Model the fold of this input.
Amino acid sequence: MNFKSIQAKVLIALVVCGVLGTGCVVGLMHYFTVENSKALATEAATSSQKLFTILEAREISKMTAATDVLIADPGIRDAFAAKDRDRLLALTAPLYPQLKSEGITNWMFHTPEPDMTVFVRLHNPTKFGDHLNRFFDKEVARTHALVSGNELARAGFAVRIIRPVYDSKGAVTGYVEFGEELDPFMRAMKAQTGNDYGILLNKKFVDRQFWADSSATWKRRDNWDDHAGFVVEGSTTGNEKIIEFQGDLATLPEHGTVLEQYQDGSSHFVRGIFPIRDAAGNTVGAMFVVKDVTAVYTSMRKTQNILLGLTFVSLAGGILLLLTFLNRFIFRRLQHILTAATRLVGGDFETPIKTDSDDEVGKLEQLFEQFRNIFVSVLAEMSGAQAKK
Amino acid sequence: MSQTYDLKMLIESTITAKGLDATDVRGKIALKAGRLLTFISPTTPDDPAGVEKLKQAIKDVLNISA
Done:
């Protein structure tokens, strides 16, 4: 190939355009893939947070309704007002298994202030008389109204409600409290969304020794040292390696944040995290969301490959078509003029340049034909003059 | 006869021997040499520069040394 020719230069320019075009499409598709992954992660985090809020509200509502029924029972109310522990236990203990099966694992009666000790602990009847001194206790004592929300106890999260119990004269005789652990929340959320979840606890709010003791009691690996700022309370996956977060839970934005996409074998995942606040408003933990986007990713990759193939084919076809047109309308006709000029000089005075086009090259052909006629006339005159000599 | 005319004869004999397109070959050599071969006759005077250009044109087009 003659690289000095316009044809070669045009071809090179077209190939460069083709490569740039294909590169732009690849870049654009990569950008879309990344953006879609972020959107999926955002969607996973926000929808999980909404679902968590809904489940939390539903459980609070359920526990509130259960306490409504409970404190309306005159027998229970009177036994509590009389601080008759045995009678209260006799009346309430049969109800506990049913409530427990509904997820209410914590049930306590508290004496009124100023003592505010645990009077009966249905989930551990032998233990009572202790002061809990939590935000919940202070808040319900202050307001004498229902207090609800999350609470990070020494060993884990729970959603709780606590409300006052009144005697027949309207005086506060103490408080009743229900609580549910958050692990069932994760399982319910996984069942509904298919995502995996993990609950992270801010170490600042967890007692190290209690964590070690409870790990031993429940035959759970003590994972305290796995992460710097938090400990994984539980997850819906056995693979805790997928839970990776380097930041500070306390600084998580209200609506959560999207973490990086990652690949495990042939599977692709996106990760997000949103804060869990306790009833006092402290960010005491977070819920980690892992969404398997393999199907979407594969689909996006397939679309990317199809688009890339189509772009390549259309660009190659376009280049071929353009070159064919250029060759047909310009290069071949220019070559014809060159050949005609060469043959004219070589002695072919009879073959005219035929043109039936009025385009730019056609005008050049017409001009060359006029030049050829003049050249032939001059040559004839010169030959005649030479013959006369 | 002039050297210029000898070169013209060399061109014609080569064209015949190789069965080349005479008009095309003559045209290419004429364009490179800057003169019409039609006007070269036995009496055409030799011009050293013109002879050299013609020899170079023959070498470029026919790939033979004159």
User: Anything to note?
Assistant: Residues 114 and 126 of chain A are 23 Å apart (CA to CA). The two ends of chain A are 49 Å apart (CA to CA). The first strand of chain A starts at residue 106 and ends at 110. The beta strands of chain A are 106-110, 118-121, 147-152, 157-166, 172-181, 196-202, 230-235, 257-264, 267-277, 283-292.
